[in-house]
């Protein structure tokens, strides 16, 4: 895909371009009709680029939000897992060391 910084012509550059005429030159009306098509395509491409940029920005935002939710869920799950491990460890200590304390 071409880098957008290398675009050299604008819609107005195309619209206002003047060509020199020669004895056996191009027909001005035919050139104008062709340039009208080019201008319409140019506008369509620019609109599509703007739409895709907006969509890209929206999708990046959604992805960042989803990453934040997943990160929060992971932290919450880790907290629950740590609690479960500490509870099991405490029960194990009571079982192992509880018998020694009774002796």
* CA-atom Rg in angstroms: 35 Å
Structural class: mainly alpha
Helix content: over 70%
* Biggest β-sheet description: none
Distance between the termini: 80 Å
Low-confidence spans: pLDDT under 50, at least 5 residues? none
- Count helical runs: 2
Q: What coarse outline follows from CA principal-axis ratios?
A: rod-shaped
Number of strands: 0
Summarize the helix and strand pattern as letters. Answer: HH
**What is the number of independent domains?**
1
How much of the sequence is in beta strands? under 5%
Give me a quick take on this structure.
With 103 residues, the protein is mainly α. The protein has helices at 11-15, 28-102. The chain has one domain.
């Amino acid at each position: 895909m071409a880098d957008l910084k290398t675009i050299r012509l604008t819609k107005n550059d195309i619209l206002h371009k003047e060509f020199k005429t020669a004895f056996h030159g191009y027909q001005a009306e035919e050139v104008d009709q062709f340039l009208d098509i080019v201008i319409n395509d140019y506008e369509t491409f620019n609109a599509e680029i703007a739409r895709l940029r907006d969509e890209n920005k929206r999708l990046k935002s959604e992805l960042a939000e989803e990453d934040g939710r997943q990160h929060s869920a992971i932290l919450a799950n880790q907290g629950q897992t740590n609690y479960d491990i500490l509870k099991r460890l405490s029960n194990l200590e009571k079982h192992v060391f509880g018998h020694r304390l009774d002796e």
